[in-house]
Amino acid sequence: MSAKPKLGQNFLCDQQAIQRIVAALGDIGARTVVEIGPGKGAITQVLAARAGKLIAIELDREMAWVLQERFSPEKGFHNVKVCRQDVLAFDFAAAAREAGQPLLVVGNLPYYITSPILLHLAASAATLDLAVLMVQREVADRVTAEPGTREYGVLTTTLQLYGSATPLFTLPPEAFVPPPEVHSTVFRWSFAPRFAELGVDEAGFITFLKQCFAQKRKTLSNNLRAAGVPAGKLVAAFEVAQISALARAETLSLAEFAGVYGALGTG
């Protein structure tokens, strides 16, 4: 099977990296693991030998068929289910209900739909436990960024609302066949939605974050005024939240954003 560039297929061939990715999931002997984009099955092979149950989601029809043959019950793999499906249409909640426990997720995400997949996982966070994901290094830098850094932005804050993200290791293009034009980073995402802790509503607060980061070079005050928040109300809210009127969104923690949001009377 040859790679299909339009599907963002770059197959991991670094055996040490494969072992490190699976190890980052912890003990999976009694767990249900969902693998996104198994491709030729390099990671699948290791997962199938260790997981209680493995659900492999593959969009490519030919590769899905080959995987079904390779990991069939007739070959001794009674714990593997291959789904020929778009992961964006996969119902993680239903799979978790069937498993009777939160799911573990692993995958080498196609670069062209990385953000949609991450947001789909965020929307399913209540039924997920942990994800170990490989993405383009620049995306991982944004997902795992800290306040005050250049990479910190709306993707960072949105995804970290659903749990903490930690970078694990970075791989060069040579670790893949065919080699991509970028480096790839593996990160671990531990799901623990923070809306109740922060005292904010999900939809409204995410909209607020998008407004705060609308133009990163502008101050938080300017972005919120552009979103229609009256200047006088902003001054009062910043005072209550103890935030400088000259602050930029990239310097605020999630707790500080929640403070401003609540002080504006939207929380």
**Mean pLDDT level:** 94
Instruction: Give the termini separation.
Output: 52 Å
Quick one: CATH class of the largest domain?
Alpha Beta
Instruction: Round the Cα radius of gyration to an integer and report it.
Output: 21 Å
Name of the CATH superfamily of the largest domain: Vaccinia Virus protein VP39
Order of helices and strands: EHEHEHEHEHEHHEEEHHHHH
Adjacency order of strands in the biggest sheet: 4-3-2-5-6-9-7
Tell the overall outline.
Answer: elongated
CATH architectural type of the largest domain? 3-Layer(aba) Sandwich
The fraction of residues assigned to DSSP E strands is: 15-25%
For the secondary structure, the number of strands is 9
- Let me know the largest β-sheet: 7 strands, mixed
Number of domains: 2
Helix content: 25-40%
CATH topology of the largest domain: Rossmann fold
Number of helices: 12
Structural class per helix/strand content? alpha/beta
- Poorly predicted spans: 1-8
